[in-house]
Amino acid sequence: MSINFTKPETFVIDSHAHMLSQYYKDIGSVVQAAADVKVKAMVIPAVNLATCQEAIDVANLSTNLFAAIGHHPHEANEYDARSEDRLYELAKSPKVVAIGETGLDFYYNLSTKDEQIRAFTSQLGIAKELNKPVIVHCRDAFDEIFDIITKVGHKLGVFHCFTGEPSMLEKIDELGFYISFSGIVTFPKSSQIQETARLMKIDKLLVETDCPYLTPVPYRGKPNEPKYILHTLAKIASLRNLSVDEMAEITSSNTIRLFSLPL
Ligand SMILES: [Zn+2]
Strand 178-181 vs strand 205-207: parallel, antiparallel, or unpaired? Predict the structure, then answer.
């Protein structure tokens, strides 16, 4: 099943791809396979402090790869004052375009709520001070995240891998945040998420793989790769009654704007 663009200049950006050696043996070939189907650029988020330097190193392989540095809420219990220093230090790299992923996950609660809130608030403060967007992981913690962002006053970022319902859109608009959809939007049971993608402000809409997880239909069961993002893009294009070229153009320019990508 192939998805073809009609305009030669069309390209797609994967706004959230974990291109790290713990998931991929040959990152260069995965990046090339994506480029072959016009997935031209990617933002590569670290998953914790230990992988921040690697995300930057991978981003340094190409002018079209960028890094986000942060510490996932699952491991928030390991986040301390030294972590803050380390993030400030790493953020000096010109390849770092965002802080994240960070956020709150009150579904798994792999760290306590207090630990997660402390680590998230700290990273949001760093993003504010550096004037960089924040990549937010939100699971069963939307109201808490909304309150913390409002309190810190850093209204620049994206809810990544969004699985929320249309009723949340008003508050997200109030924050001015972007929303990024993963392959979940292609799943048959995702009617609420599809409705959100259909109704939200189109100038805030991004697409991502969140690879190696969440492979879109029709490749569910296989490890995910940035090249499969075209299926997520095509699904949202059909929900919005747009062509895949139009949807690619809109999501790419939104991603470039949010992360100030030099593309
Ligand atoms: Zn992720």
Answer: parallel
Measured in angstroms, how far is the CA atom of residue 18 from the centroid of ligand 1? 7
3-state helix, strand, coil in the chain (%, to 5): 45, 15, 35
| Number of folded domains that form the chain | 1
Measured in angstroms, how far is the CA atom of residue 210 from the centroid of ligand 1? 5
Measured in Å, residue 24 CA sits from the centre of ligand 1 at: 15
Confidence class for position 1, pLDDT limits 50, 70, 90: low
Q: What is the mean pLDDT of residues 88-115?
A: 96
Q: Judge contact between 152 and 112, C-beta under 8 A.
A: no
Q: How far is the CA of 7 from the centre of ligand 1 (A)?
A: 30
State mean pLDDT over 236-255: 98
Structural domain range at position 217 = 12-259
Backbone angle region of 109, left / alpha / beta, with phi > 0 → left and psi within -120 to 50 → alpha: left
What integer best gives the mean pLDDT of the chain?
96
In the structure encoding, which two tokens stand for residue 196, read together? 């959100």
What is the predicted pLDDT for the residue at 23?
96
Q: How far is the CA of 9 from the centre of ligand 1 (A)?
A: 28
Average pLDDT over residues 202-228: 96
| Residues flanking ion ligand 1, Cβ below 5 Å | 210
The domain spanning residue 229 has which CATH number? 3.20.20.140
Distance 45 CA to ligand 1 centre (A): 7
User: Considering the domain boundaries, does residue 205 fall inside one?
Assistant: yes
Distance 172 CA to ligand 1 centre (A): 19
Mean pLDDT of 160-181: 97
